[in-house]
Amino acid sequence: MTWIEFTETIRTVCTYYERKIPNDNALELWHERVKTIPRESLDWIERKIFEENDTFPKNLPTVMWSLYNAWLTAHPEKRAFREEAQCPECEGGWLALQKRLPMYAIPISHSAPCGRCKQIPAAKYMTLAEAKEKGFERVNLFDHNAPKRTVKEMIASIGRPVPTPRVYCD
C-alpha cells in the first residue's frame, strides 16, 4: 500500500474510535511495518478492525498483519502461488554459460537470470538465444556425464604447492 492509502486508513480508524491521529514519526514506523500489505485487502481489514475491537487497537500494525493473514485465509484465490517453473533453458532460474576465447585455455564462465521463465527477480534478463548470439554456450549443471575427479585431483588442478616459510627463532 502507498503512503496515502495508509494514512487514509489510519485517519479513518482514528476517526471511528475518536482518537487523535498519531504523529508523523509513529506513522512512518507503522507504515514501514505494513507497507507490503496490498491495497486490495485494506477495506476488509478496516471493517474487521471496527467489528472486532471495542477500542483503538494497542498495536495497530500487528493487528493489520493478523487481519491480512485472515483475509488471505478467507480469499485463498488472492494468494500469490509461486511454483518453480521447469524451464528447459535454465537451472533454477539461472543460465549457466561459458564462452571460449582464443587467449584463454579454459572457457570463461558466466551466469545470467533466465529471460524465458524469469524466476529470479532482476533488472536485466538474458534468453538462451541472446546468449548464443553473444558467443556463449550453455553449460548443463545437471549433466551426469561430466568427468568425475577425486578431491586430490581437483586440488592438484586448482592449487599449487606452497613453499615452507623460512622462520628463524632464536
From the structure above, extract its key features:
single chain; about 170 residues; mainly alpha; 2 domains; three-stranded antiparallel beta sheet; 6 helices; 3 strands; about 40% helix
Structure overview:
With 170 residues, the protein is mainly alpha-helical. It folds into two domains: 3-78, no CATH class; 94-158, no CATH class. Helix content is 38%, strand content 8%. It is built from six helices and three strands, in the order H-H-H-H-E-E-H-E-H. The protein has a three-stranded antiparallel β-sheet with strand order 2-1-3. Strand 1 (94-99) and strand 2 form a beta hairpin. The relative contact order is 0.09.
Q: What's the shape? A: elongated
Q: What ranges have pLDDT less than 50 throughout 5 or more consecutive residues?
A: none
The first-to-last residue Cα distance is 71 Å
Indicate the multimeric state.
Answer: single chain
Structural class call reads mainly alpha
What fraction, in percent, of the residue positions are helical?
25-40%
DSSP E strands, number: 3
Number of helices: 6
Characterize this entry briefly:
By secondary structure, this protein is mainly α. The chain has helices at 3-16, 24-34, 42-52, 60-74, 128-133, 151-158, and strands at 94-99, 108-113, 137-138.
